[in-house]
């Protein structure tokens, strides 16, 4: 459980610190991490963001980057930069950073908050419904547990 949380966190850090082509896909970080770990899961819905939405997401991600950098120590920030340049996988990035439990919790809160903010303030009601329906269908396919 702890390793999975940290790998999701590392994926979130990697995604928030790199340029993401938002017009192609907007997938919550948890979905991306799960897709990397278990490719048998059906892909999430493809959400097309308009220019205004892309700009809003960029602003939110810039805020997230600043918050994440505020949690990491200087050596960790340097290591994160190296790991991202080396295109390390999320689990590798997490191992490289050697996060304390407190840092891990704080980063998870930052990422969860940014995902919620994007969901609530950037996505249209129709886009939100697409994502909700996807999660509902996944929970019906795998009752009582995490998506496969």
TrEMBL record:
It comes from the Bacteria. The keyword Transcription regulation does not apply. Residues 129-142 have a biased composition (Low complexity). Residues 75-90 have a biased composition (Basic and acidic residues). Residues 75-100, 129-148 are annotated as: Disordered. Residues 1-26 form the signal peptide. Keywords: Signal. This is P pilus assembly/Cpx signaling pathway, periplasmic inhibitor/zinc-resistance associated protein.
